[in-house]
TrEMBL record:
Its EC number is 3.6.5.5. PANTHER family: DYNAMIN, DYNAMIN-1-LIKE PROTEIN ISOFORM X1. Belongs to the TRAFAC class dynamin-like GTPase superfamily. Dynamin/Fzo/YdjA family. It comes from Haplochromis burtoni (Burton's mouthbrooder). Signal peptide: none annotated. The lineage of its organism: Eukaryota, Metazoa, Chordata, Craniata, Vertebrata. This is Dynamin-1-like protein. It catalyses: GTP + H2O = GDP + phosphate + H(+). Pfam families: Dynamin_M, Dynamin_N, GED.
Length: 660
């Protein structure tokens, strides 16, 4: 069991060299109000004066204190040629420097505090790490924090209270730490700030030990027996009373050994029933025992955490890749992988398949059959064509002679106008597929391995080459789609097997009209209507008036005669029949055209295009320059992985027998 605390100290050193706090190690955090006697308690544990003292806030940075028990000097000299001092200290920020004078340790703490938090009374969360080796100490790891203060003094910031509380909570929130709450005996325990903060993070008290300091300063006639027995406020890990050195003792340089003797004598006189469970020596033994048991309980989770983190950091290091040695092979490998990922995304065989939205080939399929197909289906074959437009086209096609039959020219003229409307959605289909092919570039970049992120210039060049290839194919594909529509417009095939025969359409319309009207009455009404229309439109001018026929406006709308209605309906049926044939053809041929001229061409020529434009000797060095972030991250991850491996080895040294 005694080896557990040095083991945690070694783990702490391993991780502190990286300045990382990814592993929360077991330790004891000392919490108390300003001038509650925290520093005196720590010095009594060490048996030496080494902490800065004074009025106001003295501890302004966290002090991580590791106490290491070593054999006496005489025994050590027999075994090894180590430090020739009974007791000494070392700081993490002063590497390879040994302090044998504890006055120098105090001065170094003060100097380092001023370096980190300035010479004013402000605080800093950056810890100072001090390790003290002595045969008189027990193995312990403690953290001394700034005292809880209420009112800013001097040039302290106005939120000094909030800053101190935030710092304390950041340490004691760690579930692996024990909380040593220090509260003076001459103040009411119910108002203890230390206990209040401890309860916030440790409601059931499993991690809190209370130290009642300054037992000798209580009012005459009162004692702390009820408090020490836990009858006022119970604390699960116990309550230990101690007697601090007075300022007079410090000024007269009274030794800590004499102070401990006086403390024992005081406890014997005033608390004889508790003398074996109070005092600085009992506190040190209790803390060491509690810390060892706490480490034993935390060790399995700690080992699991180190193992999991090692695997995670190993995976991150692998993702960053190794430094480039063969530029040619690396470039070819990256380019080939990108081209393969791009084609696989289109084919739907990519390793990373999205579940949130359609992408790649699936989205192209959706564009062809849903977006483009529905758009074509929504186009009305007769949209934009009124009966008057059709009638005007018929008349224009017959010239000066009245037509006996519906002229074929008028049908071609009108049906071409309707077919032309299919061109815009076809070009929009090409544009949507082009946009999706652009999106695949970014998708492959994000899901690809870290190579492209390692080499930003290569990434930009690959994007530029692929974008250029797509841009080059876009006008070619658009032109082919133009040709598809132009082909349909070039020859109106009225002999198409699916096209409705004009004679049948005309006969069908005639039979429908015959059924709708009575025979003789129909012709009579038609004749009267035509005479009225002729009289209204082309009647004789009034006497004394001259009419210019060219100035007469063509009526915007009027009632059509039966024959005109018949002719219009015949043309409408023929246009609809032929338009549906062409729409079906365009709906089938445009996707094929886009696949052949754009998608398949890019798939087949992407790798050769990338290699042809990027695999050039002068460009290799420039393209494969790593980003500074990647190189730095690789170094940091490698260091962290090394630290985790060391930590794993240290933990593995602990056998199950050591835990009991």
């Amino acid at each position: 069991m005694e080896t557990l605390i040095p083991t945690i100290n070694r783990l702490q050193e391993v991780f502190l060299t990286l300045g990382a706090e990814i592993i929360q190690l077991p330790q004891i955090v000392v919490v108390g109000s300003q001038s509650s006697g925290k520093s005196s308690v720590l010095e009594s544990l060490v048996g030496r004066d080494f902490l800065p003292r004074g009025s106001g806030i003295v501890t302004r940075r966290p002090l991580v204190l590791q106490l290491v028990n070593v054999p006496p000097l005489q025994e050590r000299l027999k075994i090894e040629n180590g430090v020739k001092a009974e007791e000494w200290g070392t700081f993490l920020h002063c590497k390879n420097q040994i302090f044998t004078d504890f006055q120098e340790i105090r001065q170094e703490i003060e100097a380092e505090t001023e370096r980190g938090s300035g010479d004013n009374k402000g605080i800093s969360p950056e810890p100072i790490y001090l390790k003290i080796f002595s045969p008189k100490v027990l193995n312990l790891t403690l953290v001394d924090l700034p005292g809880i203060t209420k009112v800013p003094v001097g040039d302290q910031p106005k939120d000094i209270e909030a800053q101190v509380q935030e710092m304390i909570l950041s340490f004691i929130s760690n579930p692996n730490c024990l909380i040593l709450a220090v509260s003076p005996a001459n103040s009411d325990l119910a108002t203890s700030d230390a206990l209040k903060l401890a309860r916030e993070v440790d409601a059931d008290g499993r991690r809190t030990l209370l130290v009642v300091s300054k037992l000798d300063l209580m009012d005459a006639g009162t004692d702390a027996l009820e408090v020490l027995l836990g009858r006022v406020i119970p604390v699960r890990l116990g309550i230990i009373g101690v007697v601090n050195r007075s300022q007079h003792d410090i000024n007269t340089q009274k030794s800590l050994e004499d102070s401990m003797k006086d403390e024992q004598a005081f406890l014997q006189r005033h608390y004889p029933s508790l003398v074996s469970r109070a005092g600085s020596r009992y506190l040190a033994k209790t803390l060491s025992r509690l810390l060892m048991h706490h480490i034993r309980d935390c060790l399995p989770d700690l080992k699991t955490r180190v193992t999991v983190l090692s695997a995670q950091y190993q995976a991150r290091l692998n993702s960053y890749g190794q430094p480039v040695e063969d530029h040619s092979a690396t470039l070819l490998q990256i380019v080939t992988k990108f081209a393969s990922d791009y084609c696989n995304t289109i084919e739907g065989t990519a390793r990373h398949i999205q579940t949130s939205e359609l992408c790649g080939g699936a989205r192209i399929c959706y564009i062809f059959h849903e977006t483009f197909g529905r758009t074509l289906q929504s186009i009305d074959p007769l949209a934009g064509l009124t009966d008057l437009d059709i009638l005007t086209a018929i008349r224009n096609a017959t010239g000066p002679r009245p037509a006996l039959f519906v002229p074929e020219v008028s049908f071609e003229l009108l049906v071409k106008r309707q077919i032309k409307r299919l061109e815009e959605p076809s070009l929009r289909c090409v544009e949507l597929v082009h946009e999706e092919l652009q999106r695949i570039i970014q998708q492959c970049s994000s899901f690809s391995t870290q190579e492209l992120l390692r080499f930003p210039k290569l990434h930009d060049s690959i994007v530029e080459v692929v974008t250029g290839l797509l841009r080059k194919r876009l006008p070619i594909t658009n032109e082919m789609v133009h040709h598809l529509v132009a082909i349909e417009l070039a020859y109106i095939n009225t002999k198409h097997p699916d096209f409705t025969d004009a004679a049948q359409v005309s006969a069908s319309v005639n039979s429908q009209q015959a059924e709708a009207l009575d025979g003789g009455k129909r012709w009579k009404n038609e004749k009267v209507t035509e005479e009225k229309a002729a009289a209204a439109g082309f009647g004789s001018p009034s006497k004394g008036q001259a009419i210019n026929l060219l100035d007469t406006a063509v009526p915007v709308s009027r009632k059509l005669s039966s024959r005109e209605q018949r002719d219009c309906e015949v043309i409408q049926r023929l246009i609809k029949s032929y338009f549906l044939i062409v729409r079906k053809s365009i709906q089938d041929s445009v996707p094929k055209t886009v696949m052949h001229f754009l998608v398949n061409y890019v798939k087949e020529h992407l790798q050769s295009e990338l290699v042809g434009q990027l695999y050039k000797q002068p460009l290799l060095q420039e393209l494969l320059i790593e980003s500074q972030d990647t190189a730095q991250q690789r170094t940091e991850v490698a260091q962290m992985l090394e630290a985790l491996k060391k930590a794993n080895n240290i933990i593995s040294e602990i056998r199950e027998t050591h835990l009991w």
